[in-house]
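User: Before I run my own analysis I want an independent prediction to cross-check against. Here's the chain; please return only the structure tokens and, at the end, one sentence I can use as a sanity check.
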Amino acid sequence: MLQSLEGFFHVLLDAVRALLAWLEETLWPSTVALDGGRRVRIKKQLAEGGFGYVYLAQDAYTGEVYALKKMLCQVREQLEAAKREIGYHRELCHPNLLPLLDSRVHQQHPVPSSSTGIYAYLLFPYISGGSLRDEINKRILRPLTTTGVMGTWPEAALLRLFHGVLSGVQALHEHKPALTHRDIKPENVLLKSDGITPILIDFGSMTPADRRVENRSEASLIQEEATQHSTMTFRAPELFDVSSDAGP
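Assistant: Structure tokens:
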């Protein structure tokens, strides 16, 4: 009898939690419930790109701040890509790679017209130091435009930044199977508050590194993928004209 009551209590508690979650999402649509149990409220937009949006989010209970990436998966390929990105984050753990704290793939109701209504949410720590692009603009380009003289950057800090990025890349290459980021650029390197510890972000372009090419069709496919996933000015030279006979 006691076990039956205890089981009933747990079922009732789960039902109440589900009802509260539904009410919260209905009354406060800026609140996102994640699979790991966190509830975060969207505070403001931080960035926008082809992948979707990144928001500053705050834990609904503790007040801790995070970065929340939101992607609308309009077609199956986008949904699979979002799931792969989540998977890569869960598999990788390194001080110079952005850790994933929580996630959710969510079917919105009611579904908007001309949309699947499926959203992928990825929750990350909020890295407060800005991007490497911001730092380059502040230290080098802004002084150049205002004074005509290029700014300076201490050599020791540059070497530490470079070493940190390479350490993150090494972790990708040592993963089994080896992975390649495909879009390493200043915008995809965040800096911790100390200004010299780099964090490599945006795993949406990531793919297994070792791929054999045996014909022109496969070479063209890899070139097309590079066009979609690698920024031209930072793309590896061999991806502009892929050989039809290449391999790992």
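Sanity check: Residues 24-28 have pLDDT under 50 and may be disordered.
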